[in-house]
Design a protein that fits this description.
The complex is a heterodimer. Helices cover about 0% and strands about 55% of the residues of chain A. Chain A is built from no helices and eleven strands. In chain A, the strands form two sheets. In chain A, strands 2, 4, 5, 6, 9, 10 and 11 form a seven-stranded mixed β-sheet that branches. Chain A is globular. Chain B is mainly β. Chain B is about 0% helix and about 50% strand. In chain B, strands 2, 5, 6, 10, 11 and 12 form a six-stranded mixed β-sheet that branches. Classes of the chains: A mainly beta, B mainly beta. Chains A and B meet through β4, β5 and β9 of A and loops of B.
């Protein structure tokens, strides 16, 4: 089956630093990748959509300068949280779409900013 | 705009019994898909079942089935013979031409031994 990985699974960083999260499709090429944020006991909120080789499209209210997304290849997208603050602490999930409507989710990354 | 509503924050079911999770949606699209995802404590999103809107027949996957009422914009999930491993958060979601998932707020399912 289609597998999506995320790295790291858990990261702790200090306030003011930047942290990068990778999302990889392991056995398929992803036309589109999506980044979600999930607060405890809440639903997934779409942050942005990224297509390989083009700029990401951010959802309303998401700061594009804070959450930098790079879709460098058909199997890799990265989310960089710049100048992280404690309120950025959350669970970040990516999904990847090969073709058609099906999407496959990564296992998520827990970010803790101290 | 698309919306997905799950009105049951939490449900409980006795092991081996049947439970139904409710979901309503709203969309102006004529072509769309509906999904139920399970999120266990590991937080990995697991696809439970999906339904193409153009199909009248309700989708079924082993112990999981849906009741898709297109006119009423309702998409409920029935879990038969509930097992302890079914305990999780369940999210209803819709997907249309933009390929963006719209998730409901989730229903936490507890399975009682």
């Amino acid at each position: 089956g289609a597998v999506v990985s995320q790295h790291p699974s858990w990261v702790i960083c200090k306030s003011g630093t930047s942290v990068k999260i990778e999302c990889r499709s392991l056995d398929f090429q992803a036309t589109t990748m999506f980044w979600y944020r999930q607060f405890p006991k809440q639903s997934l909120m779409l942050m942005a959509t990224s297509n390989e080789g083009s700029k990401a499209t951010y959802e309303q209210g998401v700061e594009k300068d804070k959450f930098l997304i790079n879709h460098a290849s058909l199997t890799l997208s990265t989310l960089t949280v710049t100048s992280a603050h404690p309120e950025d602490s959350s669970f970040y999930i990516c999904s990847a779409r090969p073709q058609g409507h099906e999407q496959y989710f990564g296992p998520g990354t827990r970010l803790t900013v101290t | 705009a698309q919306t997905v509503t799950q009105s049951q924050p939490e449900m409980s079911v006795q092991e081996a019994e049947t439970v139904t999770l409710s979901c309503t949606y709203d969309t102006s699209e004529s072509d769309y898909y509906l999904f139920w995802y399970k999120q266990p404590p590991s937080r990995q999103m697991i696809l439970v079942i999906r339904q193409e809107a153009y199909k009248q027949q309700n989708a079924t996957e082993n112990r999981f089935s849906v009741n898709f009422q297109k006119a009423a914009k309702s998409f409920s999930l029935k879990i038969s013979d509930s097992q302890l491993g079914d305990a999780a958060m369940y999210f209803c979601a819709s997907l249309s031409g933009t390929y963006k998932y719209i998730f409901g707020t989730g229903t936490r399912l507890k399975v009682l031994a």
